[in-house]
């Protein structure tokens, strides 16, 4: 019913089919915010030596009617594995929306299993472990995870603080940060090696912070490009949220409160309907503050692992 191969190239017909599947799936999955793969990334990384593996899946030819011609073979989807540099990979799966009821991923895992302990890793990919986010906690991911005993190792909540929660004076709980604060920002983020730094001069970004006696205690980078969230409207996003590791627990919660409330007020001042924040479910301080300042749940992302 299906066939699949690790590919480093595709003929023109298959490449066009895969591109069309990925574009159509991205449009179909935009509202629930399920996983997507940019066709341009596949085209760029398909060549050998890129550090990225692509398992292309085809639905084999099948009858359409009892006495009519078979439906020709077609590209059904792709598994994309990006090397993390530690023998493991970050994985993303996208299946043609028209074929999801068939259970393509279930068929694949029934045949190949999830054992990655061999010398060649999972399905000869070379990776001894794979982790994959189920964005929006896709309903099929839970069934597949349970069936194959895949551990859920992280949960991240997409939360929204609606602008109707903003009160007078909230915007003053944070201060604007600019190029003069670059050294203080770098000191605050010194432990976040390899992480992005806030865009201090971008027109569609605003970087605000909270200062304490010892200097900059925390910051949030607000992406002011509107993201539509059902039930809330057009929202800004907290693209980066950080606080000093030297803060006590009480100080940390106070700083986080000021950051989230202040950032929400700045979003409202820009004419937006809310502020989006992504919160790891095991970050006790941030979870407690989010609950207290009125952030509301919109989506859950779940990380599954093959290991």
UniProtKB/TrEMBL annotation:
Keyword terms: Acyltransferase, Transferase
GO MF terms, alphabetically ordered: mycothiol synthase activity
Domain of life: Bacteria
Top EC group: transferase
EC number: 2.3.1.189
Name used for this protein in its record: Mycothiol synthase
Native species: Gordonia humi
């Amino acid at each position: 019913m299906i066939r699949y191969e690790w590919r480093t190239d595709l003929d023109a017909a298959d490449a066009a089919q895969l591109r069309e599947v990925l574009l159509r799936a991205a449009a179909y999955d935009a509202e629930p915010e399920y996983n997507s793969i940019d066709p341009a990334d596949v085209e760029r990384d398909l060549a050998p030596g890129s550090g990225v593996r692509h398992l292309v899946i085809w639905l084999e030819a099948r009858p359409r009617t009892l006495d009519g011609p078979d439906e020709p073979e077609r590209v059904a989807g792709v598994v994309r594995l990006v090397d993390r540099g530690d023998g493991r990979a970050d994985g993303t799966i996208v299946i043609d929306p028209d074929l999801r009821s068939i259970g393509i991923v279930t068929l694949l895992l029934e045949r190949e299993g999830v054992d990655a302990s061999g010398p060649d890793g999972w399905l000869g990919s070379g990776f001894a472990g794979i982790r994959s986010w189920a964005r929006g906690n896709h309903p099929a991911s839970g069934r597949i995870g349970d069936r194959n005993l895949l551990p859920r190792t992280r949960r991240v909540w997409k939360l929204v603080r609606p602008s109707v929660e903003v009160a007078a004076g909230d915007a003053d709980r944070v201060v604007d940060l600019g190029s003069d604060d670059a050294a203080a920002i770098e000191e605050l983020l010194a432990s976040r090696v390899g992480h992005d730094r806030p865009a201090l001069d971008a027109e569609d970004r605003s970087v605000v912070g909270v200062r304490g006696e010892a200097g900059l205690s925390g910051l949030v980078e607000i992406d002011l490009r509107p993201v539509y969230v059902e039930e809330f409207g057009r929202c800004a996003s907290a693209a980066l949220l950080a606080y000093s590791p030297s803060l006590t627990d009480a100080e940390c919660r106070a700083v986080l409160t000021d950051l989230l409330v202040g950032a929400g007020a700045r979003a409202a001042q820009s004419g937006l309907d809310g502020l989006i924040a992504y919160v790891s479910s095991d970050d006790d301080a941030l979870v407690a503050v989010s609950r207290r300042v009125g952030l509301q749940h919109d989506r859950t992302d779940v990380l599954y692992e093959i290991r």
